[in-house]
Design a protein that fits this description.
The complex is a heterodimer of chains A (437) and B (145).
Chain A lengths: L1 H23 L13 E15 L5 E2 L9 E2 L4 E2 L5 E9 L4 E10 L9 E12 L2 E9 L22 H4 L6 E13 L2 E12 L2 E2 L3 E17 L2 E15 L1 H19 L4 H14 L4 E14 L2 E11 L7 E10 L4 E12 L16 H20 L4 E13 L2 E12 L19 E12 L1
Antiparallel strand pairs in A: 1-4, 1-5, 1-20, 2-3, 5-6, 6-7, 7-8, 8-9, 9-10, 10-12, 11-12, 12-13, 13-14, 14-15, 15-16, 16-17, 17-18, 18-19, 19-20
Chain B lengths: L1 H24 L3 E6 L9 H8 L13 E5 L4 H11 L3 H12 L8 E3 L2 H10 L3 E6 L7 E5 L2
Parallel strand pairs in B: 2-3, 2-4
Antiparallel strand pairs in B: 1-4, 1-5
Classes of the chains: A alpha+beta (437), B alpha/beta (145).
Chain lengths: 437, 145
């Protein structure tokens, strides 16, 4: 609540400032004076279609998209299609604002626009700024342009790595400072804030005290980046809430039965252990890229330290693109490897005296283990595609994804149906038209 | 002796003609600042960083404001292809990265190289590119030297 108040205050201030500056210098874009206040309205977007060979699950853009290609649709437009509009206002040398609205297929199965960014920036020096409001969350190398297809080589960043932290923005403050090191430029980024995006099927995520510290070194065509993020997370889905509430109830009931105090305690401990409330999550990533003449090379390696039923995972990708005139063929190899997790659960031996209790305990044990398996996403993929910069400000991409899901895992697929067989191989074809304006 | 001299003269004439032809085929683009600026040279990386928005300062710490010619200008194409080593599409893609991060704005455009020179001459913080033939006392060439 507090954060949305801050946000709306920033938003109102930004709009007021835009109006004021607009009155003073309406669309000064053609002016030869490089120091006057300006206002710019720009946008980006993608028209996309995805087809997936797995018919009992959906290939989606991530945790926030309720359905996609495979089970729900033969060809799904929602995975990559999006439209973003951004207003940039420069009020003075030091003071500016950014406001960005993005429309994409989201949790409630609509394309209702959301405020992706709304922040005020104060530029103390050309190399030091502070932004206040809703800013980008930056755990990854291309976090900044995660949604801007035109800025990226692929149709979408590798889901093995980028799915580890699906939250794209935060409400708070960020600080950026850069300095030269010989011929190289080093940029330091720090941000602190909160976020609470909504999940499909009335699930919720709350990130609090979400901190990211990142350092990027640019030397000619080479960029090296390291980042560390930390936050407290609440994660609720109807299924996990039902399971844990059930366990608590069962624990209380069993505890009240003489002789079963131990088993009751076990059930209550389990419920507490897996309750996804205020859990500390941390994330580390290292990235490197090389972009010169024909070659574009990029690699990222990341570790998520999970909590509750969300498994700790390691992921990486390596991407290479080679420009041939207006065409850039590219390839990516990526892997997502979760730590295996399982739970012995409530001991059923003593409960055997009352068969119904033993059966219920066994059901809870298997429920917990199923949730743990579901929370350990693992897959490898091989991606090949081509980007064609066929007209100004527009690129057409065609991409083939070959995914090998870990045994027992649904990988990065979602909207899993009862007939789904874990551990399969999935082929997906995507077409996307990326544009900026 | 006279023969050697004649050969030298012919060689020189040939050299001048060929270099004139190459110059005509690729206009000679140079990055310049005001003669009032204290900056006298840049490395290729420093020039690239300023024009790609990765640095807002000259090596001596003074503020650097790059400017661009219109998108369809041959001189602009020349500048990015030969001195920065990126095609127009790559430059577009690069700026779309910075714009949609709120990290920066592409250089402000000026209509003609003549206006670019004027702007540079008047403001010691502005850096732009012009044709070598436009060079006069009001500007200093930073790259290539």
């Amino acid at each position: 609540m507090k954060h949305s108040n801050i946000l709306s205050a920033v938003w109102n201030a930004a709009i007021a400032a835009i109006i004021v500056s607009g009155a003073a210098a309406p669309f000064a874009s053609a002016a030869d004076d490089v120091t006057k206040p300006t206002f710019a309205l720009r946008g980006f977007g993608t028209l996309g279609l995805v087809h997936s060979s797995e018919k009992n699950a959906d290939f989606t853009s991530g945790f926030f998209e309720p359905n996609g290609a495979g089970y729900t649709r033969n060809w799904a437009p929602g995975v990559d299609t999006k439209l973003g509009v951004q207003a940039d206002a420069q009020f003075s040398d030091k003071f500016s604002a950014v406001f960005q609205l993005v429309s994409q297929h989201q949790y409630n199965n609509t394309y209702k626009p959301r405020v992706e960014w709304a922040n005020l920036k104060y530029q103390f020096t050309p190399d030091f700024d502070i932004r206040l409001g809703r800013t980008v969350a930056t755990p990854f190398m291309v976090s900044d342009t995660r949604l801007v297809g035109y800025a990226n080589l692929w149709i979408r960043p590798p889901r093995e790595v980028y799915g580890l932290v699906p939250i794209t923005n935060k409400d708070g403050i960020d600080v950026n400072y850069r300095f030269g090191v010989g011929e190289a430029t080093n940029s330091v980024h720090f941000s602190y804030g909160a976020a609470n995006p909504k999940l499909p099927d009335s699930g919720t995520v709350k990130a609090k005290n979400y901190v990211t510290l990142a350092n990027t070194l640019n030397y000619g065509p080479i960029a090296l980046r390291a980042s560390y993020s930390w936050g407290r997370i609440d994660l609720h889905t109807p299924e996990t809430d039902a399971l844990l509430d059930g366990l608590t109830q069962f624990g209380n009931t069993v505890s009240a039965i003489p002789g079963f105090a131990t088993e009751g305690k076990q059930a209550l401990n389990l419920a507490n252990k897996y309750r996804f409330h205020n859990e500390p999550l941390s994330f580390i990533s290292f990235g490197a890229s090389y972009d010169r003449d024909e070659w574009l090379l990029m690699a990222e390696w990341a570790v998520l330290n999970g909590a509750s039923f969300l498994a700790s995972s390691t992921a990486w990708h390596a991407t290479a693109g080679y420009r041939i005139g207006k065409f850039t063929p590219y390839m990516t190899v990526a892997q997502l490897r979760p730590d295996k997790q399982s739970e012995t659960g409530i001991s059923t031996a003593a409960l055997a005296a009352i068969p119904s209790l033993a059966a219920t305990a066994a059901a809870f044990n298997s429920g917990i283990n199923r949730t743990l398996t579901a929370g350990a996403f693992g897959q490898k993929s091989l991606v090949a595609g081509v980007r064609w910069d066929f007209i100004k400000n527009t690129a057409l991409k065609v991409q083939y994804d070959y995914m090998i899901l870990d045994s027992m895992s649904s990988g990065r697929l979602s909207n899993i149906q009862p007939n789904f067989q874990p551990g399969g191989k999935v082929n997906a074809i995507s077409i996307a038209l990326d544009f900026i304006f | 002796m006279p023969i050697k001299l004649k050969m030298c003269a012919t060689a020189l004439a040939l050299y001048l003609i060929t270099s004139a032809i190459t110059n005509a085929a690729s206009a000679d683009v140079v990055a310049v600042v005001s003669a009032k600026s204290s900056v006298t040279s840049l490395t290729a990386y420093q020039l690239t960083d300023i024009f790609l928005g990765r640095s807002a300062r000259f090596p001596d710490g003074t503020k650097a404001i790059p400017c661009d010619l219109a998108e369809d200008s041959p001189l602009r194409n020349e500048f990015y292809t030969n001195l920065i080593g990126k095609s127009q599409a790559q430059i577009k893609s690069h700026w779309s990265k910075l714009i949609f991060t709120g990290r920066g704005q592409p250089p402000r455009e000026v209509a003609t190289a003549e206006k670019a020179k004027q702007l540079v001459a008047e403001n010691p913080n502005v850096i732009c590119y012009i044709d070598r033939s436009q060079i006069d006392k009001s500007v200093t060439v930073l790259f290539p030297l």
